[in-house]
Amino acid sequence: MSAPDGPTHDVVQRGLYYEELDLDARYLHRPGRTLTEADNVLFSTLTMNQQALHLDAAWAAGQPFGERLVNSMMTLAVLVGASVAQLTQGTIVANLGFTEVRFPHPLFHGDTLYAETVVAAKRLSGSRPGQGIATFAHTGRNQDGVVVATATRSVLVWCRDAAP
């Protein structure tokens, strides 16, 4: 039921401030993203990655997986991108870096990537008052639950009272 005179306030979708990041939660980012041949070819060519394993179906058919693979940099980009709305939209100051990026199983055209994140650590910044550093452990799984990518990412985020 709506208020008689209409809405009284706006709610803006955003990520989480430093204080809201929960070390005991696993954030499941939904919906998943089904990666198509067109996605893979476009991403590979936009990023000037001419790897035949992504672009040449005849050549890839003779390789160990028997078909083209989704570009692993696209897998990483979608994995991190899927977390934005829930974790960092409007609350991030900067990405600080990535470590421990792994691709234990390939993604193929038509596979769906599901992303999840655990906040592995967080601390207030010593040099930037009103900001904190969070370490995210991102995991990507395909539609069968198989882990296809993992990455650790450090981000600088706003504290609630300091955010612009």
Automatic annotation (TrEMBL):
Q: What family does this belong to?
A: Belongs to the enoyl-CoA hydratase/isomerase family.
Q: Which organism is it from?
A: Cellulomonas alba
Pfam families in alphabetical order: MaoC_dehydratas (PF01575)
List the signal peptide residues: none
PANTHER family in the record: BETA-METHYLMALYL-COA DEHYDRATASE, MONOAMINE OXIDASE-RELATED
Q: Which residues form the MaoC-like domain?
A: 24-126
Q: What is this protein called?
A: MaoC family dehydratase
